[in-house]
Design a protein that fits this description.
The chain is of the alpha+beta class. The chain has one domain: L-amino peptidase D-ALA esterase/amidase (4-Layer Sandwich). Helix content is about 30%, strand content about 25%. It is built from nine helices and 14 strands. It has a six-stranded mixed β-sheet with strand order 4-3-12-11-10-9. The radius of gyration is 19 Å and the shape is globular.
């Protein structure tokens, strides 16, 4: 490696050794550096870890007693569309979020849809009768490397539990929908970050379900690879779901533009949206939508890229190693960094 790359590696590992941090935020974070720094937003998980079944559900619950009768502004960016979500078409058409958001594995989308419908009916009994039908929003990634996805193990009870357990403090890494996910050939999963938008006196929070890219695409991948001779390469078809929340007063069109900027954060990490990847960002606001000034919109977009980048790093650093389907294994980045730091900083 060239000298400047060695110097960068040494600085990164020193920061990891001293502070257990990788990457330096370009902009200030909220108090907990999480999606729930946006007031009223909650996150819940339900994890299933039973032998070859390694999967789960994650719920993102916005503020409001009934999103069907009082929807929130919402925008979508489909960066690469090899994916099986439900609800995106109507969100793009109307710019409204009518339900909480559920995340899980690819073959669980139908279960998530039914769960959100039952939840909406319980709050609005005339839904689909004298009132229109609801538009549930459920998104997925394929966890079939670590999880026996054909077991169809995710149940409505699990999804309901994730909704009901939602809180402002939540676990990250190998939990919920992220339990069976891989990222850069390592253990991926749930990560989060937030950024402050001073011009709007607002916050933007990001939660990711990280399940993408190969180790050689990670900037420090070439240094890590020799420490993992047993590592099974990740297929270059992984995906990521990015959920953004803000209390900035933005409309659906502006939120869609902000969601699109998540791609810049992924690019900084080494993602390039492979042919078989489903890379989707959803952004919603918890506030009404008077027009903010142009410079505030720009600041929001910068926050989106920065927070997405660090939410993925958060997923990698919080994830614990998992062994699952057919003995497949994904190691944890934090363990590899500890070994690398011992070798380089010794």
């Amino acid at each position: 490696m060239m000298a400047f790359q060695q110097a960068q590696l040494h600085a990164l590992l020193q920061r990891w050794h001293d502070h257990q941090q990788v990457g330096v935020p370009r902009m200030p974070s909220g108090p907990s550096n999480s999606l729930c720094d946006v007031t009223g937003v909650r996150v819940g998980h339900e994890t299933l870890a039973q032998g070859e079944v390694q999967t789960g559900v994650t719920a993102i619950v916005p503020p409001g007693d009934n999103l069907f009768t009082q929807p929130l502004p919402c925008g979508v960016a489909v960066l690469n569309g090899f994916a099986k979500p439900v609800g995106l078409v109507q969100v793009e058409e109307l710019g409204q979020l009518q339900t909480p958001i559920l995340l899980s594995n690819t073959l669980a989308v139908g279960t998530l849809f039914t769960t959100l419908v039952r939840d909406a009916i319980a709050k609005t009994p005339e839904l689909g009768r004298t009132l229109p039908t609801v538009n549930p929003l459920a998104l997925e990634c394929n966890d079939g490397w670590l999880n026996d996805i054909q077991a169809l193990a995710v149940t409505e009870a699990m999804a309901q539990a994730a909704l009901h357990n939602a809180d402002t403090h939540f676990a990250r890494g190998s939990v919920g929908a992220g339990h069976g996910m891989s990222c850069f050939g390592l253990k991926g999963g749930i990560g989060t970050a937030s950024r402050l938008i001073p011009e709007l006196n607002a916050t933007l929070g990001v939660l990711v379900l990280a399940n993408f890219s190969t180790l050689d695409r990670l900037q420090i991948g070439p240094f890590i690879e020799p420490l993992l001779p047993e590592l099974t390469p990740q297929r270059d078809a992984g995906s990521i779901i990015i959920i953004m929340a803000t209390d900035a007063p933005l409309d659906a069109r502006q939120l869609g533009r902000i969601a699109k900027r998540a791609g810049a954060g992924l690019g900084r990490l080494g993602s390039y949206w492979g042919h078989g990847s489903g890379d989707i960002a959803v952004a919603f606001s918890t506030q009404p939508t008077p027009q903010p000034p142009e410079e505030a919109k720009l600041e929001s977009m910068l926050c989106a890229a920065d927070a997405t980048e660090h939410a993925v790093l958060d997923a990698l650093l919080c994830a614990e190693a998992v062994t699952g389907f057919r003995g497949h294994h994904r190691p944890a980045l934090r363990q590899v960094l500890d070994r690398l730091a011992q070798n380089v900083l010794a």
